Amino acid sequence: MSKEKQDRFLQLYDPIHDRFERFCRARVYGKMDYKDLVNETLMVAFHKLDTLKSETAFLSFLFTISVRVLANHHKKKKEYSISESDDYNLEGNGKGTAYSTEVYYLYQALSKLPEVQNDLLSESRWDNDSRN
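Given the sequence above, the corresponding structure tokens read:
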């Protein structure tokens, strides 16, 4: 990392800092911390500073990078989350799936009970099974 490149970058960035920060705050819409967007954009911009054709276009350069960084963030976030169309619609997946899901959550809830209550439930299950 050269000192000249750092100086050039800071010389371009200092006068537009406030405008760029306001842009990032407006773009995130609460979906991402604007400071993260600023930092990631500045990191990319610094590494790609050599591709900047005109110093007067530096703000536009930052805007373009920040839009791409934000789009990539949303894409990654969407990949890791369950889509809203799934919406845990168990009825549409068949009765077996809905039943299995209910049993799973039931056993999860039962495992959280104190040992004494869990033992009582186990005994009553055996009693009901022997009657059938």
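The chain has a mean pLDDT of 77. Try to locate this feature in the token string yourself.
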